[in-house]
Amino acid sequence: METLQTQTRPGLSGTALKLAACITMLIDHIGASCIEATYGVAYRTPPQILQLDRVLRLIGRLAFPIFCFLLVEGFLHTHDVKKYIGRLFLFGLLSEVPFDLAFFKTPFHWGNQNVYWTLALGVLAMALLQKSEDADGNAAWTGRLAALACAVVAQLAGTDYGAIGVALIVALYLTRNDRRYQCIIGAGMMLFEITAPLAFVLLWFYNGERGRCPQWAKWAFYGFYPVHLTLLALVTNLLLA
């Protein structure tokens, strides 16, 4: 299995990037939940609140590309892809009700699904591509069609970032042996969000190392998503209702 070579120069570890992604995601979700889900339509929202929301969301746009990059790294280094996908699906299930409550103020909102489903479909797409690869690492058309099907499922299911999310994961996987191409292509794909391409500045400095991350921290990163959504759901539905 091919992986990126570890850089000799100092840089950011995987753990440091995870922390950056979690912090920017939290900032983003404070805007989406505590402000947007609470105030509703823009014309009824005070301009100062709208400006604050815009700042929070612009900062938060950095999170998703970082998570996608780290997902590819995790896939390249995992010893059990099935367990990897299973963990993502498990936390997708655990996160769905908090996600709906935080952003839609209802425990069951069928139109949108949380980002763990997108990440799980992204890993599935990479696994199907890898399974069809020849000795030179070129995926057969069957693998490419299977990856496309994963993107279509994400779009139809309304997962966070939908087809473009799965497509970004696949693109980062296909360019895994060249950080320059990863950053250029990834930034280009995320141009529809003004600040999202800036995430690839951080990713350029990834040093190829996991960094200090004990077992409890690994599960803490997984659990951060449903836990922070639960807290935001409580604030949005009880304190700011």
Automatic annotation (TrEMBL):
<keyword id="KW-0812">Transmembrane</keyword>
<dbReference type="InterPro" id="IPR008875">
    <property type="entry name" value="TraX"/>
</dbReference>
<feature type="transmembrane region" description="Helical">
    <location>
        <begin position="58"/>
        <end position="78"/>
    </location>
</feature>
<feature type="transmembrane region" description="Helical">
    <location>
        <begin position="144"/>
        <end position="172"/>
    </location>
</feature>
<keyword id="KW-1133">Transmembrane helix</keyword>
<dbReference type="Pfam" id="PF05857">
    <property type="entry name" value="TraX"/>
</dbReference>
<feature type="transmembrane region" description="Helical">
    <location>
        <begin position="219"/>
        <end position="240"/>
    </location>
</feature>
<feature type="transmembrane region" description="Helical">
    <location>
        <begin position="184"/>
        <end position="207"/>
    </location>
</feature>
<keyword id="KW-0472">Membrane</keyword>
<protein>
    <submittedName>
        <fullName>TraX protein</fullName>
    </submittedName>
</protein>
